[in-house]
């Protein structure tokens, strides 16, 4: 699940479309319903899904609240969901990961991308919860997943 604009980006859009990404128009609140139907159809086929239920990116200081509407298909299908947190390190870089990896504040791809590709090394740590969360209530599911993800989250280095 990704914002609609990514579909038209050079290289990234092609990769995202090839990976089967569902794109959502964040300017149209009701588009979450259409995207939810697409995600539900994939769950019915038994396909695993990966979403970032914060709904946007941040500086990496904290995990933002999870959007329950993005978890509606999983709650309705009654599928187990695994919480995960991601943290980054950029050994050897004077700039912190909050400026080179994390992309936030409506910064353009043209501004952000050169800092990202200029990195010599990136260490990403993904931590998964020990057990999945299962709930037919999307708000309960969102809160429980956030709690588990937050418990293992390490903030990225800031400026």
How would you concisely characterize the structure shown here?
By secondary structure, this protein is of the alpha+beta class. It is 35% helix and 10% strand. The model has no long low-confidence stretch (mean pLDDT 94).
- Computed over alpha carbons, the radius of gyration is 16 Å
The main pleated sheet reads as:
2 strands, parallel
* Dominant shape: globular
- Measured as a percent range, the helix fraction is 25-40%
Summed over residues and divided by their number, the pLDDT gives a mean of 94
Q: State the distance separating the first and last CA atoms.
A: 30 Å
Instruction: Order the strands across the largest sheet as they lie in space.
Output: 1-2
How is this structure best described in words?
35% of the residues lie in helices and 10% in strands. It has helices at 12-18, 31-44, 72-77, 97-100, 109-117, 138-152; strands at residues 2-3, 23-24, 84-89, 123-128. The strands form 2 sheets. The chain has a two-stranded parallel ribbon with strand order 1-2. The protein has a two-stranded antiparallel ribbon with strand order 3-4. The longest helix is centred in the C-terminal third of the chain and has 15 residues, at 138-152. The radius of gyration is 16 Å and the shape is globular. The two termini are 30 Å apart. The protein contains 6 helices and 4 strands; from the N terminus they run βαβααβααβα.
């Amino acid at each position: 699940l990704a914002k609609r604009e990514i579909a038209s980006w050079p290289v990234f859009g092609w990769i995202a479309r090839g990976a089967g990404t569902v794109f959502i128009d964040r300017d149209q609140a009701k588009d979450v319903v259409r995207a939810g139907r697409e995600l539900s159809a994939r769950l019915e086929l038994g396909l695993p899904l990966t979403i970032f239920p914060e709904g946007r990116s941040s500086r990496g200081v904290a995990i933002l609240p999870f959007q329950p509407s993005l978890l509606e298909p999983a709650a309705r299908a009654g599928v187990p969901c695994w919480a995960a947190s991601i943290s980054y390190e950029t050994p050897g870089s004077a700039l912190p990961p909050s400026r080179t990896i994390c992309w936030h504040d409506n910064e353009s791809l043209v501004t952000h991308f050169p800092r990202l590709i200029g990195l010599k090394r990136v260490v990403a740590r993904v931590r998964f919860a020990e057990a999945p969360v299962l709930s037919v209530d999307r708000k309960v599911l969102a809160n429980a997943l956030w709690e588990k993800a937050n418990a293992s989250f390490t903030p990225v280095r800031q400026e």
